[in-house]
Here is the input.
Amino acid sequence: MLCLGIETSCDETALALVRDGVVIADVMSSQADVHALFGGVVPELASREHYRLIGALCDEVLRRAGVTAADIDVVAVARGPGLLGSLLVGMGFAKGLALTTGARLVGVNHLHAHLLAAGIAAEMAYPALGLLVSGGHTHIYRMESPRHMPLLGRTLDDAAGEAFDKVAKQLGLAYPGGRTIDELGRKGRVNPTMFPRPYVDNDNLDFSFSGLKTAAGLVVQANPALIKAARAVATGSALSADASHVDGTEPDSALPDISDLYDMCASFNHAVADTLRIKLERALVRENGPLPGAPAAPARKKRKKSGMVAVAAAQAASPEQAAPAADAGQGGPAPNPHRAPVRALVAAGGVAANSYVREALGDLARRAGLPLLLPSPALCTDNGIMVAHAGWRLASLGLGHGLALEAIPRGRSIPDDFTMFRSV
Ligand code: ADP
Ligand code: MG
Here is the structure.
C-alpha cells in the first residue's frame, strides 16, 4: 500500500510517501524564516506559503520515490488541529488528488500522528501512555490503538513548546527557540531551585506552563546581562568567550558572562523536563499502580500556596532526591483493575526532541520497567512522514473518509468520524 502524507497544519509544508510502513521519500519546506521576523507564526502568511509550495513539493516527493500520482493508494492529510487556513490548503489538495486518482482519503489527527511516529523505528506496544509535547499542545493520552486515544490530561494555558519559545524571545533568541535553549543548557549547570515545577501540587494530570514562563521572564528582567549574553551567542562572539575559557587565556572583559546564560537555560530545561516527568509518572501510577520498589505513598502536606515544589526541592539533599518526592501523584484514584496496564511510555512532538526531556522520561521508564518509545529528534517536530505513517496505519485497519472530511482548527476536538472501507 502506497500512502502519501500531507502536513500543512502550521508553518511546515511537508509531504512523504510510505509503502507498507516503510518511508520511501519525504520533502519539507519550513517557513521559519518567513515568520522569524514577527516572533511567531502569522496565519495568513502561512497559508499563502503552503499554497505556493504544495504542488511543487508533491511533484518532488513523487520524483524522489520514482512513482506517479496514479500509484498512490491512500492520501492521508493532517486535518487538525492547526491553523484553519493552513489546514484547508492541504485538505483541498488531498481531496483533489484522491478524487482524480481514486485513492482512499484519510483525515489524520495531527496530534495522534506525532505519537504514532514513535512506532516508525520501534514496535508500538498498546496500550501505551503517550505524552504529546509540542508548540501548541501538552497532552497525556492513553493510547489504545492508532485510532483510539482517550485524553487523560491537557495544558490549561501555555504549552511546553510555547514556554520555550517565549523565554527564547525574552532573551532575544530567534524563533522557535526551544532547540537553542536545549543546546545552550547543555553547556551549563542545573540549579534545581531556580524555577518552580508549575501546577504539580494538585491531584490532576493537567499542565500549566504560564507560571514557569513568567518566572523565567522575571529572571531575565532581573539580569539584563543574560540578554547581552544571548546576543553574543546569536552573533557568534560567545564562541571566543568559550574558547578563552577552554584554552585558559584571559576572557575578553567586554563580553558578558555566558556561563550565567548557560546555567539559566540548563535550569529552565530541567524544570520543564521534571514537570513533564512528574505528571507522566502520576498518570502511570494511576494506570498501573505504584512503580516497582516505590516507597509507600507519603501523606500529602498542606501548602499555603500551590504550584511551587521548588521549595520542596530546595529542602531536599539533592535534586535527584527532590524529584520523585515532588510528585504528589500517589494520592490519586486507584488503578482500574478492568483496564489493561500500559505496556510502554511514548513521547512525541517538538519538545520531545529536548535532551533533558528525553533523559527525564528515560529515567522514569527505567524505574517503571517499561520501554520508552521516542521518535528520532527530526521526527519530533512537524513532518510529513508522521502523517503518511499514521495514514498507512489507519488505512490498514480499513478506515478512511469521504470528501465531506472537515478541517478542524485549534481548540476544537477532532471527531472520530471514520468510515469503514475494505482494507486497501
Ligand atoms: P506544533 O505542531 O505545535 O507546531 P511541533 O511539534 O512542530 O509543534 O514542535 C515545535 C515546538 O517544539 C516549538 O515550540 C519548538 O521550540 C519546540 N522544540 C523543538 N526542538 C526543541 C528542543 N530540542 N527543546 C525544546 N523545545 C524544542
Ligand atoms: Mg505538531
User: Anything to note?
Assistant: The chain has two domains: 2-116+382-420, 125-374. Residues 302-326 have pLDDT under 50 and may be disordered.
